Amino acid sequence: MLLLAPQLCAADITIWYSHQSESFIEGLVSRFEQETATRVSLVQFEPEKIKAEIILGAQYGGVPDLIFVPSDFLGLYRQMQLEPIPEQWLSTELAQDARETALVDGSYWGVPIIQGNHLMLFYNKQYVANPATSWKSIRTSVTQFQQLHLMPVGWNYSDMYYLVPFLSAFNGRPIYGDLISLNTPAMVQALNFYHQLAQDNVVDGNCDYNCSQKLFIKGETAYAINGDWAYQDLKRELGDNLGVTLLPTVEGKVMHPMKSTFVFAIPEKSRDGSNKKEHIRHFLKFVQRKDNQEWVYQSHRLLPVDQKLFNQVVKQATGDELVILKQLQLAEQMPSLTAMAIAWQAMKKGYLRFKDGLSAEEAAAYMQQLAFTQQQRLQN
C-alpha cells in the first residue's frame, strides 16, 4: 500500500529508503538533526517494493522529498519523475567512478553517498574452520552439516541480484552496453546450476532475505551470502565467530557480484516554499561531508565515495576489511540505465516461470521477450 507524504507533514524533510542497514540511515539523519535542528521523517521499504512505490507515488501523488536507493534506479528517472541534481551540489571530492553512477543521459539524478553494495560469503567459525573456495567443496559438506542440523548456505534465493554472480561465472551479463542479453547459453547454465543447489539442499529455495539472515545469526546455517551492508550487523551478533571470504568458484570459474552506489535522489513535486529546497540542499551537502563519510565507515563499515577517504581506507585495511575490498575489486559495476531496470524485472518474471516448470531454455527466452516488449513500450 502506498504511503502518502501528508502522513509525515510535521517534518522539514521526508525520506523513503530501502537500505538494509536501518541503523546507518537513522544514525546519519540523527547527526544531521542534531547539528541543524531540521526535522527529518524516515520511511523504510523492503528493497523489492520501494521501486513500485516511488513510481506509483510519481503518478498519483504522495512522493517524499528525498529517496535513498541503489544507483541503478536512476535509469528510471522519467518513470520516477526525478529532478536533476545541480552539478555544484556534488562534492568536489566525489570519486569519479561513483560520480558516473549518478549520470544518466547527460544529467545527474542522484547524489552518491556510499559504494560497494556487493555480495560476499560469510561463515560461522563455530562450524567452519577453513572456508570453502568452491561450490563443489560446499556440496561435499552437505551431509556433514545436515548431521549438525544445519542448512549449508542461506541467501535471498528468489532475488535476482543473487543470481547474477552465478550468471557471471558462466561468462554472462544481464546487459552489454545498453543491450539486454538474457536469452543466452550462460543464462541457461546459471539457472540450472542455481536450481540444482536448492534441489540438493545446499540452500533453502523458499528462504527470503529476512529468513536467511535470521537463520545465520541463530547459528542454523554454516554460510550466508549477503552484502557488505550486512557486515556490521552480523559482526555485532556473531562477534569473533563471524568470518568473511570471497564468493566460491563455480566449476573453477570466479563469481563476479555486481556493485553500485547508494544515492539520494529528489522526486519531482511541488515545493512548499524555498525553505524546502534549502533543507534538501543542506542535507545533501551534509551527508557528503568528509567527517560524516568517515563516521559512516567507522560505524557501519560502508565504503565511502569520498576519493581521498576511500584511498585511506584501502591503505589502512586489515582482516575482514581486506576481504571486503578484494571482493569489491572482483565486482562489476551495475549500469544506471533503463535497460538494467528492465532486465531486473524480466529476470524476476522469467525466473518465476522457471520455478513453476518452464525449462531453463524456455525461461531465458521468456526473459528476453519480456525485456524486448517493455523496451518497445517505453520507446512508444
UniProtKB/TrEMBL annotation:
<dbReference type="GO" id="GO:0015768">
    <property type="term" value="P:maltose transport"/>
</dbReference>
<dbReference type="Pfam" id="PF13416">
    <property type="entry name" value="SBP_bac_8"/>
</dbReference>
<keyword id="KW-0813">Transport</keyword>
<dbReference type="GO" id="GO:1901982">
    <property type="term" value="F:maltose binding"/>
</dbReference>
<comment type="similarity">
    <text>Belongs to the bacterial solute-binding protein 1 family.</text>
</comment>
<dbReference type="GO" id="GO:0042956">
    <property type="term" value="P:maltodextrin transmembrane transport"/>
</dbReference>
<dbReference type="InterPro" id="IPR006059">
    <property type="entry name" value="SBP"/>
</dbReference>
<dbReference type="GO" id="GO:0055052">
    <property type="term" value="C:ATP-binding cassette (ABC) transporter complex, substrate-binding subunit-containing"/>
</dbReference>
<keyword id="KW-0732">Signal</keyword>
<protein>
    <submittedName>
        <fullName>ABC transporter substrate-binding protein</fullName>
    </submittedName>
</protein>
